[in-house]
Amino acid sequence: MDYYRQFSLKNYNSFKTEASAKIFCQPKNVEELRRCLTEHPYEQKLIIGGGCNLFFTKDFDGLVIHPELKGLREISDEEEEDEDIFIEVNASEDWDGFVSYCVERGFAGLENLSLIPGTVGAAPIQNIGAYGAEVKDVIHEVVAINMVTGEAVSFSNAECEFGYRDSIFKRTNKYLIISVVFHLKRTFVYTPKYFDLNKELEDIEEPTIQDVRNAVIRVRQRKLPDEKVLPNAGSFFKNPYISQEHVEKIKTDYPELPAFLQKDGSVKTSAAFLIDKAGYKGIRIGNIGTYPNQPLIIVNYGSSDGNDIVRFMREIQSAVKDTFNIELEPEVRIF
């Protein structure tokens, strides 16, 4: 395994911002992974998968690890073979490639998460979600390496401490995920969850799992830019949770405010709606802007400096705070 010094990270973040890593390596198996950890015990460490949910504002003074852990295996369960299927997938596998693999075989549970960029290992870190589904709903187990001890640790679904775009892996930054075990179903029945998806499927009486994947892809392609064509990191902000009293106050001026009551009594609302009404849909300042079809997406029209993105982000946050008294929290990781 080779180590590279002052290695450019421009092609390892989907915003294409310019930065260098003090040290960079690409371990191809768990043994090499452990070796790069033990050989650099005192270096600050950053794990990069597809780089689809982060960007850089400066050089990284430490070790950047870009694992290349590929492969998957289906795990049969004799007692529940007719309905349940468990699949262990190594962390560097392409996420949408894995979703396609499952849909082609009729394994249900991931179809609503089609066309999300990134790797399998990144999915539990962020607890990715879309169109009424979250990856936590189908994760059985996560296997990771403790980056201090090099020890392999297995996490049950509960031990992952999943939250909204959150997990123990994101909060602690102590573990490097090497594989994920998914619990899927061999039979599929479409359950309406999300307005845009329901509308896309309204002319199909009994949608198949492939129909759902195709519909998700069509909706995403209409609304969201291709990061290979127009650099972005997907949804930039988390949807905020506010009180019911706050909702009622906002609705006096904005009665169409999306509001989804949660079990704990809080209300989830739409960051895209807030950004739009604060006047930032389709706005461009210099080489940074919001995507015209979806204000939740910040896009890079040509800047190599991540600080330009940060300045634009703060301007949106300030406008939403002034208009709604709501603080938007970035979903994207900023280094």
From TrEMBL:
Pathway: Cell wall biogenesis; peptidoglycan biosynthesis
Stretches assigned to the FAD-binding PCMH-type domain: 15-187
Superkingdom: Bacteria
Entry keyword set: Cell cycle, Cell division, Cell shape, Cell wall biogenesis/degradation, Cytoplasm, FAD, Flavoprotein, NADP, Oxidoreductase, Peptidoglycan synthesis
Compartments it resides in: Cytoplasm
GO biological process: cell division; cell wall organization; peptidoglycan biosynthetic process; regulation of cell shape
Catalyses which reaction(s): UDP-N-acetyl-alpha-D-muramate + NADP(+) = UDP-N-acetyl-3-O-(1-carboxyvinyl)-alpha-D-glucosamine + NADPH + H(+)
InterPro entries: FAD-bd_PCMH, FAD-bd_PCMH-like_sf, FAD-bd_PCMH_sub1, FAD-bd_PCMH_sub2, MurB, MurB_C, MurB_C_sf, Oxid_FAD_bind_N
Cytoplasm recorded as keyword: yes
EC code: 1.3.1.98
Alphabetical list of Pfam families matching this protein: FAD_binding_4, MurB_C
Recorded GO MF terms: FAD binding; UDP-N-acetylmuramate dehydrogenase activity
Active site: R165, S235 (proton donor), E331
Cellular component terms (Gene Ontology): cytosol
Cofactors named for this entry: FAD
Its job: Cell wall formation.
Family listed: Belongs to the MurB family.
Protein name: UDP-N-acetylenolpyruvoylglucosamine reductase
